[in-house]
Amino acid sequence: MCLAIPGKIIKIKNQLAEVDFQGVKKEINISIVDVKVGDYVMVHAGFAIEKMGKDNVREIETYLLSS
Amino acid sequence: MKNKIIELEMGGGGKKSEELIGNIRKILSVKGKWKNTKDDGAIYDLGRDAKFCVSTGCNKLVFTTDAFIVDPLFFSGGDIGKIAICGTLNDLSVMGAKPIGLSLSIVIEEGFLESDLEKIINSIQNVSKITGVPIVTGDTKVTEKGKIDKIEITTSGVGLASKIISNDGAKVGDDIIVSGDLGEHAVALLAKRFNYQTKIKSDCQPLLQEIQAVSKYLTSCKDPTRGGLSAVLNEMAQKSKTKFVLDEKTLPFKKETMAISELLGIDFFSFPSEGRFVATVAKKNSKKVIEILKKYNKSARIVGEVQNGKEVWLKTKIGAVKKIEVPRGKLIPRIC
Amino acid sequence: MEYKKILKNIQEKVRIINRPLRFMELCGTHSEAIAKHGIKNILPENIKLITGPGCPVCVTDQGEIDVVAGLALSGIPIACYGDATNIPGSLGSLENARQKGAQIFIVYDVAEALELSRKIPNLVFWGIGFETTTVMTAWGIQQGLTVFSSHKLFPPAMEALLENNKIRINGFINPGHVSAIIGMKAYEKFKIPQVVAGFSAEDVLLAIEMLLEQIITGEKKVENEYISLVKKTGNKKAQKIISEVFEIRNASWRGLGEIKNSGLKIRKKYQNIDAEFIHKELIAKIKKEIKPRKSACRCGEVLQGLIESKQCPLFGKVCTPDNPQGACMVSREGSCNINFRFTE
After folding, report:
1. Is-contact B309 B243, C-beta < 8 A?
2. The CATH fold of domain B175-323
3. What value of ipTM does the predicted structure carry?
């Protein structure tokens, strides 16, 4: 019911982060997650809803192409 | 024309109209075999081309028209002017016709920036110059503020053809090919509208040369503009009374295109392109065709096969098949 | 490829169980993933996947749409997600209202609505969706955005489904992104096999395998397939924002009727930006004038997995994605819409 897609945090400015989704970048609100540059987050409607586990980074990178 | 705006009077037929049209004409300068008189239409002397027509077998006149409204007007890789001229040139090209001349009608909302109009006309001139197809006649009107949204452009075009490539000629056993990665026009527009940064530019471009290079091998051809790949393939499959089967492994979409599709919840199969074509080719010719097309665009490729049956199907990577539907309604982003 | 192995395990487990099973995917995004990957046509015949009520558009009650459309037609500018514009109410959809001159703005996120509200006076953002989407609305309210809340909570709907004896379900595939917010605890009270799942083809197949395993061992617990994202406790910060802004109330769900404690109302301290409060007289007037539209639409039963779309007399005839009669045909995640698009 809730479309969400994973992206990588590139830059952080306060509550906002620049997130890269396979070459498409957008400013995303990160106020409900604890993250640093390089982390992967799941993004729904302009918000990072949760940080993604490290073990799955490789999977995440292929997520878009496989889903 | 800097910083000035278009006034209602400029569409009134008086001196100011003349000035505006004069300025537009100054930019549009590609010469063709057309004779421009002070009358309302341009004249093409068929007699002069008679020899050419006999020698090439060009005995068909193809005529097409298209209206263009785009939001935003300017985007990465093009603007409404470029789309307006490429769209009509491509409609002629995918039918196998050689465009010989275009008309250009512009309706402008009062208050539109003259400098923006200049940019748009320059884009049209650029494509006209590259392809050698002249704008031979046109019209310009200005509406009251609020009556239309900024600017609307209509182009019509005529072309000559010896053999018409239709969109109903796909044969069972043909390969389905694309001239490059698809949907990048949509990506450029969506990125601009919803504030995404990406390197992807609109694919808007004239297809004249690449189609002419392979046209003799194509059994059917169409450009996936409105409605994207799903709309054109469904139309081609239905008119050819065949089934089109695509393979998910060779889908012609870049990762950025898929990402923006996922982000906005809009199916990339419905993403329009403005400078690509989809065609069917007899299997024995498809390698050769792709080889030629790769000179123009490295991502030209075979994406599927024409089979007995109906509709358009996708073999998914888990070995299942699913139907590719005709897109419906507006491309509205969604969150769920 | 991994999926082949999972599929083989599924086939083996189905053979051991040797009876027909019905699993319900609760989340609309799962329904769409299932359709997108063609999962139904590679599963053994004994497994039937049923689409549940997890599409916020589909479960939005006609009354709520009527109120929002009524506000829009009374001159109040409405901002909403694209999904919400086509849901039919008795006054028509928001798209119909827009055609009649109402100001309807489609936004992609709450930040956009907030920006818009600074330019357009009296703008009301219509918040729909479950816990995942509620967080963003709550954040918007904290920033001063005026909201009409149709937000709903997911677990109470699961409870309502389980209380209906007519629904024979052997297991739930629980929503992934709702669970990322609320965690796993809320599901523990339901005595039925459940797996929280991700959205790739492998994720869904693996969740089905895990459900089958529970059935073999006779367990009835909540498992997590979506470990890359979903934590047992959920996202505490998100939960905090939601409860700071919203309080629980009863809510009407299309097809399921009123479900106790399943809706979210904006707390009193934010009542100056609660559209329900600001426009209460107007809303009362709109409600009085509404004549509920009678329809042969069987959306409600479809949502509960009681009937299939094709058993509805309207399906594919008068009710199509171009002319939806019920909400299940509106959303791309709606079961009727999916069935219309993906079946031969």
Report:
1. yes
2. Phosphoribosyl-aminoimidazole Synthetase; Chain A, domain 2 (3.90.650)
3. 0.86
